[in-house]
Design goal:
Mean pLDDT: 87
Number of helices: 6
Order of helices and strands: HHHHHEEEEEEHEEE
Shape: rod-shaped
Largest sheet: 6 strands, antiparallel
Amino acid sequence: MYQESRNIMVKKLLKGILITGVMVMGISGCSSNVQDDSKQKIVSIQKMDKSFKSEKREEKLDTLKKVLKSQSKYLKEENQDNNVLDQYKKTVTKMRKYFISDYEKNIKENTLENVESIQDKQQINEKKDNLNALKTLVSEEYKFTLDSKKQYDSYMKSITEIATQYDDRIAALEKEEEMQKQAEIEKQKEAQRTYSNEFFTITVPEEWGSNWSIQEDTSRTNVIDGITRVRVFMCSHHPSDGSEGGGADIYVINMSDYGIDEAHSSSSFYRSLIPVAEDEQKYLYSPDGETSQGWVVFVQNVAASFIDDGARHTVPLATITLN
């Protein structure tokens, strides 16, 4: 009886040892499988990392996407290996660093120093277009190439600030161009209503249009002792509305020898050369009292007048300055 009981206990003990051994072998085998799978996973990640180094930019992005997709899938598995997780993290960081460097290089290459002083609008537009293209690129890629939305917003802010400076400068240049264009138009308009010779410049009102003329009356040129003393210019204005026009005779007197001798010591000698009563003669002075050639200019308005002589007039008249 005792012997029989002892045999039963031995059988149970042996059975327990056998079951435990089988369990240990199972666990050991499972652990071995997990390790093998982790090694294969790490090798696969490293292979993609190696391939990334020699690829073109578009191919690099595809490879990064594959790594991220594989990482996302792995994070859903129950049995995760820290070594695999570290390999994913290290590889993704390295790949993203390439794209971040590319973004920053692009921003640097398209940032103009002292943009406020640049006059080349085409140069600014080219840089602006490049930055806008970069904004589009980053917007399309950032979910893969950047670590966070915050990082993306920071890049967008930097690019937008630079592009805004370019927009402001382009607007300023276009305003300058418009002002220059308008100034040129005004200059052309003024040229069309301006008469000038070596003695004086006359500018007529814009509303006169082309209904005016100024020409020299050579029949009244006065030459004394071989010296040209008087030249006469006739001015006329004929309004297109049929209203009364005006005119003026402009006498240019050579007084370059005034005061040299007794014959030329009095202004009466020169005034007598003008067929106009002395009280009707009106001097026009340049800053030093005469033209740059030493001649003096007299104006005699007729009819509704032509030159603004300082008197009260009801219509706009031409202005005259001495040269």
